[in-house]
């Protein structure tokens, strides 16, 4: 049990908007009943007597939010990066995911994933499992024990995948229903189901209709992929000639925002119509820059998304991305935007450290509610970073220290982590 009121002391830095950092040096961050009560330079007299956790000169930031990661792919991160998306799926992803039919293998593989997620700076995540109901439940059991707040999905595929993974439409819908019932029966505190059609090429219209029925019955959110790769987009046009654009292939079934909270990964080639529909429906975009580079998809026009007021967060997209470390994802987002600006579209200025930090905290956190900031009333997710390992010959201001974290930090800098006001064990 955490204290009803406790206080963290250190160098506090967070975002209210994408343009600037809010910084309070050697300040106090107050948690009351699992939410942020306030940030203070001088602790108010009325707070006297409450426990203070003094982290000295460390940085205190909101917990990072990973809007898109594949747990079963963690085993082959850093491998097969010389292929494009569709070949990569056939060669790497599908054979590996088939192994999760064995709970013994799933236990072994997911243990590595779960342990590293716990040690990272991530406090919230949207996670893909596999088509296997029991293995997905096992993953959820393991994530629940970490104390992290996650949404985990059993993947749906009833076409265009290997025979050893494909489910018949009725089987896929039925297994998903049983999985939802199992999850509700287990009454997790921090682990929640999210509908997960892999992507339009792997899901028939009939399956999408069945998933919408489940979405309405249980009021579930949804995660999938969108406009990631040019070959994929052409394939969707063949499979769904009635769709105005890729996103419309989801929206025709009511699985694209609006009354179905939705996060779509990538959006590398989203055109004006798709962007307008995402804005109208409140769809969240999970920007996965390293994955987009590794599997030769391209560079998403993130500046355009931000300018048009879309919800944009960050995704590691392991194993398209090589690491769950969201600091690296932030750095890749800045670097990729510079390449896009220099090489293909100088109308879209490169992203800043302030913007990518916002995306990895408050931007993506909004998918979970009032999450990702230290503004009063936000859920108390916090990460304490000790950057003393990263020696420097001169004093640095707080902004500079955080910017270095974006490029240099890993799990070694994570000194402490809190989710909804509860401290998480890092060991």
UniProtKB/TrEMBL annotation:
Pfam families attached to this UniProt entry: Amidohydro_1 (PF01979)
GO biological process: guanine metabolic process
Domain Amidohydrolase-related: from-to ranges: 60-423
One Gene Ontology term of the molecular function aspect: guanine deaminase activity
Cellular component, GO annotation: cytosol
Keywords: Hydrolase, Metal-binding, Zinc
Gene3D superfamilies for the chain: Metal-dependent hydrolases, Urease, subunit C, domain 1
Entry cofactors: Zn(2+)
Residues annotated as signal peptide: none
InterPro entries tied to this protein: Amidohydro-rel (IPR006680), Metal-dep_hydrolase_composite (IPR011059), Metal_Hydrolase (IPR032466), Metallo-dep_hydrolases (IPR051607)
Name the UniProt record assigns to this protein: Amidohydrolase family protein
Organism: Candidatus Mediterraneibacter stercorigallinarum
């Amino acid at each position: 049990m955490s204290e009803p009121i406790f206080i963290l002391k250190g160098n506090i830095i967070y975002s209210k908007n994408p343009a600037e950092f809010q910084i309070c040096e050697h300040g106090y961050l107050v948690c009351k009943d699992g939410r942020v009560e306030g940030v203070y330079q001088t602790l108010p007299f009325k707070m006297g007597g409450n426990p203070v956790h003094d982290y000295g000169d460390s940085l205190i930031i909101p917990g990072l939010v990973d809007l898109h990661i594949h747990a079963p792919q963690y085993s082959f991160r850093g491998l097969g990066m010389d292929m494009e998306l569709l070949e990569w799926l056939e060669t790497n992803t599908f054979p590996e995911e088939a192994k999760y039919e064995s709970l013994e293998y799933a236990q072994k593989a997911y243990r590595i994933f779960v342990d590293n997620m716990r040690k990272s700076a991530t406090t919230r995540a949207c996670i893909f499992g596999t088509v296997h109901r029991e293995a997905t439940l096992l993953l959820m059991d393991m994530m629940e024990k970490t104390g992290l707040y996650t949404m985990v999905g059993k993947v749906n595929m009833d076409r265009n995948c290997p025979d050893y993974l494909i489910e018949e439409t009725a089987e896929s819908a039925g297994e998903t229903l049983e999985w939802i019932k199992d999850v509700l029966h287990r009454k997790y505190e921090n682990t929640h189901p999210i509908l997960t059609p892999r992507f339009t090429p792997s899901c028939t219209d009939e399956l999408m209709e069945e998933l919408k029925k489940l979405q309405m019955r249980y009021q579930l959110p949804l995660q999938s992929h969108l406009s990631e790769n040019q070959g994929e987009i052409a394939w969707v046009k063949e499979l769904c000639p009635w769709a105005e654009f890729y996103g419309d292939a989801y929206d025709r079934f009511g699985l694209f925002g609006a009354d179905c909270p939705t996060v779509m990964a990538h959006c590398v080639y989203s055109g004006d119509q798709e962007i307008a529909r995402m804005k109208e429906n409140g769809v969240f975009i999970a920007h996965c820059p390293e994955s987009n580079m590794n599997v030769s998809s391209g560079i998403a026009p993130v500046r355009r998304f931000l300018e048009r007021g879309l919800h944009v967060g960050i995704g590691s997209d392991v194993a398209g991305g090589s690491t769950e470390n969201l600091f690296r994802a932030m750095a890749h987002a800045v670097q990729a935007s510079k390449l896009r600006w220099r090489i293909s579209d100088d109308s879209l200025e490169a992203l800043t450290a302030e913007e990518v930090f916002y995306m990895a905290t408050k931007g993506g956190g909004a998918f979970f509610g009032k999450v990702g900031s230290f503004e009063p009333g936000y859920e108390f997710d916090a990460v304490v970073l000790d950057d003393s390992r990263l020696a420097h010959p001169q004093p640095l201001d707080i902004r500079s220290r955080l910017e270095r974290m974006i490029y240099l930090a890993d799990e070694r800098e994570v000194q402490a982590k809190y989710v909804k006001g509860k401290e998480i064990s890092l060991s």
